[in-house]
Amino acid sequence: MINILIADDHPLIRQGLRKVLSSPGDMLVVDEATTCHEVFDKIRKHKYDVIILDIIMPGQSGLDIVKDIKNEFPRLAVLILSACPEDQYAVRALKLGASGYLTKEGALDELIDAVRKVSCGGKHVSKSVAERLAYAIEDNLKIDPHEKLSNREYEVMRMIATGKTVKEIAESLFLSEKTIGTYRARVLEKMNLKNNSEITYYAVKHGLIE
Fold first, then answer.
1. Which of 54, 77, 122, 169 is 20–30 Å from 97 (CA)?
2. DSSP run (H or E) holding 205
3. Nearest to residue 10, comparing CAs of 54, 48, 61, 42?
4. Which CATH topology does 2-138 take?
């Protein structure tokens, strides 16, 4: 039996996943978590085979969670299930140790296959993501400006590029407006950009937003 922890702050998503994953017969949703703190509280007390993790979680960046989980529990499989398109987050997540990346728009049978695969130590990636990983290895010495950003800075940068205000970003990430302002300043400095318009232009040009 594959023991699963679902980490997502949307109750309808958790309910739907529990229903889907209960049908095959070889999987069991043991527990659920709605925040980053809750994820770590549970994995330190209980044993799971797979964590199905949303990349946007209250408190901490979902990408940072992947890194922290793998540092403390290197054998625990983390399967990302996110509304964010894979071309914007998948390679970064896999580099941090995620076992796979799926979008919430994907097929349900793909999710089931992915859970089985990563629970046995395998990796689940789409063909397009595999190609991006190959190019990333080839071009390891060439680092684009957005690759210099921390995971949280990257999230804030993308949100700015989609037109969200500092207040909207703060509410979405459960952080203060002052903190978001600090992240914005770091983004501008690290990417050598001057304002939000240049952030948006860069993000569109590099395919970081739709």
1. 169
2. helix 196-205
3. 54
4. Rossmann fold (3.40.50)
Query: Please, are residues 72 and 80 in contact by the beta-carbon 8 Å criterion?
Result: no
Separation of alpha carbons 170 and 41, rounded Å: 24
Angle (CA) 127-162-6 rounded to 5° is 55
Residue at 12: amino acid letter: L
Decide if domain 145-205 falls under CATH 1.10.10.10: yes
In angstroms, the CA 28 to CA 48 distance is 10
pLDDT digits (tens, 9 = 90+) for 132-171: 666 665 555 467 788 888 888 999 999 999 999 999 999 9
Total-model pTM = 0.68
Supply the DSSP string of 107-124, one letter for each residue.
Answer: -HHHHHHHHHHHHTT--B
Residue 127's SS3 state is helix
